[in-house]
Amino acid sequence: MGSKYSKATNSRSDTSNLSYDVPFESSRFPLVDLEEATNNFDDKFLIGEGGFGKVYRGVLRDGTKVALKRGRPESSQGIEEFQAEHKIHSLCSHPYLVSFIGYCNERNEMILVYDYIENGNLRSHLYGSDLPTMSWEQRLEICIGAARGLHYLHTSGVIHRDVKSTNILLDVNFVPKMTDFGLSKTMPGLDQTHVSTDIKGTFGYLDPEYFRRQQLTEKSDVYSFGVVLCEVVCARLALDPSLPRDQVHITEWAMKWQKKGQLKQIIDPNLVGKIRPDSLKKFGETAEKCLADYGVDRPSMGEVLWNLEYALHLQEAVI
Length: 319
Ligand SMILES: Nc1ncnc2c1ncn2[C@@H]1O[C@H](COP(=O)(O)OP(=O)(O)OP(=O)(O)O)[C@@H](O)[C@H]1O
Ligand SMILES: [Mg+2]
Hints:
Order of helices and strands: EEHEEEHEEHHEEEEEEHEHHHH
Bound molecules: adenosine-5'-triphosphate, magnesium ion
Number of strands: 14
Distance between the termini: 43 Å
Strand content: 15-25%
Helix content: 25-40%
Largest sheet: 6 strands, mixed
Number of helices: 9
Strand order of the largest sheet: 2-6-7-5-4-3
Structural class: alpha+beta
Shape: globular
């Protein structure tokens, strides 16, 4: 979980009566089925906790493994996030997006039900755990898949708004799945270049231009994805206040070295000697472009995808 930034002006404070609509069709689960799937929300089934609430793994009666996100009833943003998840999942489905199975809004509960993604989030495979190190090729494949998922969202008129390494899940074959559409926005029309909106997202990943202008475009996702690329190569937190001041923000730190052509000095020690220089160069240049100050100077996700595929090609090229 990261610290969330939410400058909402229209949050609802009274959630005692959850008589909200679910605007789109999807399966509605009786609460009793979800209690059965998680042994009554037993802590043994807990797999994580985020801004929306606790996340449990569970098994439905037909054997389907699921992840349940149980909203905190006291969360004023919960209802909006709950509805946004429905909306986006009813509009979008793709191999690189987590599948949404259904929901439960019985009694005071707000529960979202997803496919269970076996290997958890990308961040835990990069740092802060004892999980085995991933190779450079594997990391590139994951970035490429996540970029495909985001490219699909953008071409469907959806801006994710909370791109980060904990919102990229890895399945049993390490295929990435983008998740968490609770903050996502749909673009109102094809001629529209931005959505004016409150600032929401996670510290360390927020596009500074969006922060200043409160105008959201798909290039804000591109910026956040650039932060993820830095995490992938450096294996450290996006924002780490315990580090010396010039290292606190991964973007400032990584781009300082990238601009000197010396990114290799700060890569994950597990990758030293294992990345071909031209592949690292292409990757560093791609991250740098994603992190450009102005959205207009950033590439589209389609271009990012192409560049990452090229970085993988350079890594795999046989001399
Ligand atoms: N479908 C899923 N399958 C397996 N694990 C999941 C699934 N969804 C979420 N998780 C796990 O639960 C954790 C918490 O998820 P959640 O989205 O609530 O919070 P977060 O992304 O870590 O932080 P934040 O709420 O600040 O965005 C994730 O990091 C992930 O490890
Ligand atoms: Mg998440």
